[in-house]
Design a protein that fits this description.
This protein is α/β, with parallel strands linked by helices. The protein contains nine helices and six strands. It has a single domain, classed as TPP-binding domain (Rossmann fold).
Length: 239
């Protein structure tokens, strides 16, 4: 039976790929659905800019491919709307899932610019200013949440859990932490911004008081280049 590592990518991961686009202030007064439509259009254009470089994701996938022990698998989730990590997974041209990859789908917790599947399956597109009540049940979000509550090991890259919808995710995990493996989980939190790192790790620890939360004030690429020692220490990597 496989052990799983769950990866959660936030905005900091996209910034590490030089996707620095933010919602323009001139979109703020628009009605919600019109704002979402324009965000999707502009972010797709920004993601395709030549300056955007997904090399860090390619390096990550190459490391996971060559170093993951046979008893471990990886799953990816993100609060980002962009599809940068999918770009690199798709470039692998997988006909079958390799042993290290539990699922080639990247679970978008807050929705995505990608037009794929059905609205019933996909997570709703959530804005930073939305309340948690905008998070309606969908197969994608529910499936990833159910994976998480049975998970033991998590890696968080560039997330702050600052907006209400992301804090709601932690609050939902807190409700089940007494009865499920998530309550005793281990978290590795990466963020080069020390203040954001402190806040995000504190929020995880508060939601899951029995969990172990380790932090590293590093960019993802820096952590990869240093060998991702934490994964070797818990037996995920053989090299």
């Amino acid at each position: 039976m496989a052990n799983f590592i769950y990866w959660l990518f936030g905005r900091g991961a996209s910034i590490g790929c030089n996707l620095t686009w933010v919602v323009p202030s001139n979109l703020m007064p628009l009605p919600r659905e019109q704002k979402i439509a324009k965000i999707k259009k502009e972010l797709i254009i920004a993601s395709g800019d030549p300056s955007v470089d997904t090399t860090v994701y390619r390096k990550l996938l190459n490391n996971l491919d060559s170093r993951t022990a046979t008893s471990w698998q990886h799953r990816f989730g993100t609060t980002n709307w962009d599809c940068l990590i999918e770009k690199e997974i798709n470039s692998l041209n997988l006909e079958d899932l390799p042993p290290w990859l539990a699922d080639s789908h990247v679970f978008h917790i807050n929705g995505t610019v990608e037009e794929w599947g059905t609205e019933k399956y996909r997570s709703p597109f959530l804005l930073e200013e939305d309340s948690y009540q905008q998070r309606t049940p969908t197969l994608e979000a529910d499936k990833f949440f159910n994976f998480m509550i049975w998970g033991n090991f998590f890696i968080v890259v560039g997330m702050s859990f600052e907006c209400e919808t992301d804090r709601f995710l932690l609050a939902s995990l807190n409700k089940v932490e007494d009865d499920l493996p998530i309550g005793n989980s281990v978290w590795f939190v990466l963020n080069p911004d020390k203040e954001t790192l402190k806040v995000s790790s504190s929020r995880i620890q508060s939601a899951l008081p029995r969990s172990k939360v380790y932090t590293a004030p590093k960019k993802l690429e820096e952590w990869i280049d240093e060998g991702m020692v934490a994964l070797k220490e818990i037996g995920v990597f053989t090299l």
